Amino acid sequence: xxxxxxxxxxxxxxxxxxxxxxxxxxxxxxxxxxxxxxxxxxxxxxxxxxxxxxxxxxxxxxxxxxxxxxxxxxxxxxxxxxxxxxxxxxxxxxxxxx
Length: 98
Hints:
Blueprint: E1 2-3, E2 8-19, E3 24-30, E4 41-44, E5 55-66, H1 70-85
């Protein structure tokens, strides 16, 4: 793990990508035992990833982690409450009325 400063880290990562009928995902696994906390920003370096249909693969890249300060961490925890309550507005009932 390469340290740039106390708040900015550069670590290796693996990206598991799948695009199939059952799943569409890209999971980033950080190396070096890095723990991500509320407000932290992770940016994966490299070109955009394009996955053909019915493909599954692993990539190795570098990730840059920017640690949030105390105020940004508190703000992220506070605003998360409002973001999750936005999901309550989703309705699965049909729009048509008989």
